[in-house]
Write a structure and sequence with these properties.
The two termini are 34 Å apart. The protein has a six-stranded antiparallel sheet with strand order 1-2-3-4-6-5, covered by helices on one side. 40% of the residues lie in helices and 12% in strands. The chain has helices at residues 22-32, 80-92, 135-154, 171-185, 193-204, 247-255, 273-276, 281-292, 300-323, 330-352, and strands at 11-12, 41-45, 53-57, 62-67, 100-104, 114-118, 213-215, 224-226, 233-236, 243-245.
């Protein structure tokens, strides 16, 4: 399943078919991780369907291992070398990410390429409303999220060694074409009048202006690890969808939580920000712009509409896989159930941006 809709909470015993060669892994760890000392015990994170993810436990500390899945791989998919590279570059630029200890590109070690990074201990909030904390702490946690994504988009990707991490420029043209093509070519999943309108409207109304930065692609509260007691981000997780792109699109995907009903994807739709003690959407956007030295973000509503469309296209693809028998999980079927509502919401965002 796409990283956009995974729930990676908790670990359990390693699933059948995903076992690791413990002897080979132990030997690699001894040769490549400076502070490693066994014995080694392994658990598997419950999520990580795209790239299996493991918790490596030793008496001294824990690590995280991410590897490619077993079996044949699609060209360009499961590019863990890209993940390890972006983590190293962003760590050097001061962004809070887990420290990478090493990348193994030799599939002979445990069957696929993999990398090992620190296990960052802290709090992960699965509900965007962050229940069970005070309004003051909730406000501080939201401000920390805002500061972190602003810091990400302020990093000089060339100086960080990531100049060729993606294709700069024409981000919206390329992304709209990609997701439109996926939607239109999946005949089994059917067509929808709202999506058909968006396929026509979006490419004709891209706001002017080009800006390029590293974009996360799935920046949301449950992909952040917060300090155990302080409102501070210790690590940004899940860089599988990262690339060079438009920072406004990346921020709007994150801020989409304000308009997203919680039963579709964890969001704040229908909530009262004042009652929660947090900044409302307008103030949250203004704080981001202030941190980035921007007067405002004129294309913001378009960026939101694009992100709703993108998410609807992903859910539409899940529907196709369910129909073809390639996705049978309860979570996949939940995505299909809310798809009509999500597609209506996507067009509603376009209307807010001026669509008629």
């Amino acid at each position: 399943m796409n990283a956009l809709v995974e729930d990676n909470s908790g670990t359990a015993a390693v699933r059948p078919g995903y076992e690791l060669d413990m002897g080979a892994l132990d030997a690699w760890m001894r040769a490549n991780v400076a502070d490693y000392g066994g014995p080694l015990r392994v658990e598997q994170f419950k999520g990580g369907q795209s790239n299996p993810t493991y918790k490596l436990i030793t008496p001294g500390k824990s690590y995280v291992l991410r590897k490619q899945p077993p079996g044949p791989l699609l060209k360009g998919a499961h590019a863990l070398d890209r993940e390890a590279r972006v983590l190293a570059g962003l760590s050097g630029a001061g962004l809070p990410v887990a420290a990478v200890h090493g990348l193994c590109t030799d599939p002979a070690v445990i069957g696929t390429i993999f990398y090992v990074m620190d296990m960052v201990e802290g709090r992960i909030f699965w509900d965007a409303a962050i229940p069970d904390v005070s309004p003051a702490e909730r406000a501080a946690l939201f401000d920390a999220m805002n500061a972190t994504i602003a810091d990400l988009h302020s990093i000089d990707h060339v100086a960080a060694g990531l100049a060729d991490y993606g294709r700069p420029g024409n981000y919206f043209e390329r992304q709209i074409a990609r997701w439109s093509r996926q939607y239109l070519e999946d005949a089994e999943a059917g067509r929808d009048p709202y999506m058909d309108r968006l396929v026509e409207w979006l490419p004709a109304h891209i706001p002017p202006g080009e800006e390029t930065s590293i974009v996360h692609g799935d920046f949301r509260i449950d992909n952040l690890i917060f300090h155990p007691t302080q409102p501070r981000v210790l690590a940004v997780l899940d860089w599988e969808l990262s690339t060079l792109g438009h920072p406004g699109a990346d921020f709007a995907y994150h801020a989409m939580m304000y308009r997203m009903p919680p039963h579709i994807v964890a969001g704040l739709g229908g909530s009262d920000p004042a009652a929660l003690g947090i900044a409302d959407e307008e103030a949250y956007l203004a704080a981001y712009c202030r941190r980035r030295g921007l007067a405002d973000m004129p294309g913001y509503d378009f960026y939101i509409a694009f992100n709703f469309f993108r998410l609807a296209a992903i859910f539409h693809g899940i529907k196709g896989r369910v129909i073809r028998g390639n996705a049978s999980s309860a979570q996949a079927r939940e995505r299909v159930a809310v798809l009509p509502e999500l597609m209506r919401l996507a067009w509603r965002q376009a209307e807010r941006a001026g669509a008629r």
